[in-house]
Design brief:
Strand content: under 5%
Main location: mitochondrion
InterPro entries: Cyt_c_oxidase_su8, Cyt_c_oxidase_su8_sf
Order of helices and strands: HHH
Distance between the termini: 61 Å
Organism: Betta splendens (Siamese fighting fish)
Family: Belongs to the cytochrome c oxidase VIII family.
Oligomer: single chain
Number of helices: 3
Radius of gyration: 28 Å
Membrane topology: Single-pass membrane protein
Shape: flat
Helix content: 55-70%
């Protein structure tokens, strides 16, 4: 019985709000104005690689220090 009452309350609450506005995000991009060269691409990939690998390597190399209780 409580399920029937709950369903009618939910339907009533949703009906009293009216129609909700649905927001949609749109994303449009254009081609690049200048093509990136090999140097810029390799530099960007290198920086991205180091920013992910360097902290992981630091943690892995100091894992024993983190395990020890002082």
């Amino acid at each position: 019985m409580s399920g029937i009452i709950r369903a009618s309350i939910i339907r009533g609450a949703l009906g009293s709000r009216g129609h909700a506005i649905t927001q949609r995000a749109s994303y449009q991009s254009k081609p690049a104005k200048e093509k990136l060269g090999a140097v810029e691409t390799s530099l960007a990939v290198g920086v991205l690689f180091l920013s992910i690998i360097a902290p992981s390597a630091w943690i892995m190399s100091h894992l024993e220090d983190y395990k020890s209780k002082k």
